[in-house]
Amino acid sequence: MKKIILLTASVFVLSFSPASTHDASAASQHEMAHQEQGKLYVSATGTVAQIPDQASVSAGVVTQAVTAGDAMRQNARQMSAAFAALKAAGIKARDIQTSQMSLQPRYDYKDRKAPIIVGYEVRNTVSARTEDLENVGPMLDALVTAGVNTINGVTFSIKNSKSAKNKARLDAIAEARAKAVGMANAAGVRLGKVLEIRENTNNFNPRPQMMMARVAMDEASTPISAGEQTLSVTVNITYALDQ
Predict the structure, then answer these.
(1) Domains with residue ranges and CATH for the chain
(2) Which of 112, 143, 217, 222 is the most interior residue, by most CB within 10 Å?
(3) How many angstroms separate the Cα of 124 from the Cα of each of 44, 63, 80, 143, 148?
(4) Under 8 Å CB-to-CB from 194, ≥6 apart: which residues?
(5) How confident is the model at residue 220 (pLDDT cuts 50, 70, 90)?
(6) E strand map for the chain
């Protein structure tokens, strides 16, 4: 009698398990589908334009001579004059930095023979930073007069971009909110709470509108344009939808 009861119970369990598994799977799928419903995804970008308030100049001296010592001494004389010109232009010592210094042999590759050293070349580059944008052009002229024979470029930047970034962020969030409200109203649903916010910040980029950093009253001065730069913040916001 005991054997019959155990056999019956075993059969009952086997016949019940597949149905139970199917019901659990269906309930899980229904729950996942329900979780994916009732969400609204919006994206918006806020942009703020600013005029740069500091500039960095990269310039240097390249000298060549038969011996390495002569090339170094000639370069040192010209670079000393360049440093003096920067200080005379009002650039503080902490804003002047040597960014490159190299000594390389110069080779002669004539007649397909093994190259031989015919001299040496010294490259010395300095970077100088200033907040007086009107003085960038005259500063470049002073450097060339002092003996600088290489100008790598002028870079403009914004010293403190925090306030610009905050403004761009607020504009982006406000635009995203307005977009979400409009979409929810059009769909006949009510906008719920914010579920997630993600942010992406773009670097400053030059814009076509240019501002002259110096009015070129003297034709001998190099005109420099600081331009206008933009900072953009993009936000991706997920809202809940209330039925």
Answers:
(1) 37-50+161-242 (3.30.110.170), 54-157 (3.30.70.2970)
(2) 143
(3) 47, 9, 11, 13, 10
(4) 237, 238, 239, 240
(5) low
(6) 39-50, 54-65, 96-108, 116-130, 150-157, 190-201, 205-207, 228-242
How is residue 192 written in tokens? 């719920």
CB-neighbour burial class of residue 230 (10 A; exposed 0-12, middle 13-18, buried 19+) = middle
CA 213 vs. chain centroid, Å, equals 24
Tokens 């450097």 sit on residue: 143
Percentages helix, strand, coil for the chain (3-state, rounded to 5) are 40, 40, 20
d(CA 128, CA 93): 9
Average model confidence (pLDDT) across the chain: 80
